[in-house]
Amino acid sequence: MQTKRIELIGPGGMLTIERDRSDKTNPQRVRIDSILRNPSRGQQAWVTYEIGSRICDRDLLDMAMTLFHRLERRQPSNAELRDLAGELYRFTD
Fold first, then answer.
1. pLDDT of 25-79, one tens digit each?
2. Minimum mean pLDDT among 20-24, 55-59, 79-83: which range?
3. Structural domain boundaries, residue 73
4. Which of 5, 22, 26, 72 has the highest local Cβ count within 10 Å?
5. Distance of CA 85 to the CA centre of its chain
6. At a CB cut-off of 8 Å and minimum separation 6, what does 84 contact?
């Protein structure tokens, strides 16, 4: 069984994480859409990130930090960061 898509909602906005099977050259690519609820002036409301299945742990944690900040509008605790990185990791295997 595989999880194909997950949506996470927080006070700052929402994230959609899904496997992108449309690219035949890289079928293990993961697409992440981040939408802010009320973006600040000059802040981009919609951002799409793409990560490969072979992302290193440090890059995965950096991505989780960025996404958590957009979702919650605050710095994560270590446990929160680990939880979000775990969700990302589930899609990269």
1. 666 789 999 999 999 899 899 999 999 878 899 999 999 999 999 999 999 999 9
2. 20-24
3. 5-92
4. 72
5. 8
6. 8, 64, 67, 68, 76
Q: Which residues pair with 21 in a beta bridge?
A: none
What distance in Å separates the CA atoms of residue 78 and residue 58, rounded to the nearest whole number?
A: 14
As for how many domains the chain has, the answer is: 1
Beta bridge partners of 19: 30
**Pair of tokens at residue 23:** 């690219």
Going across the sheet that includes 5-10, the strands are 5-10, 13-20, 29-36, 46-51
The pTM is what? Answer: 0.86
Specify the length of the chain in residues. 93
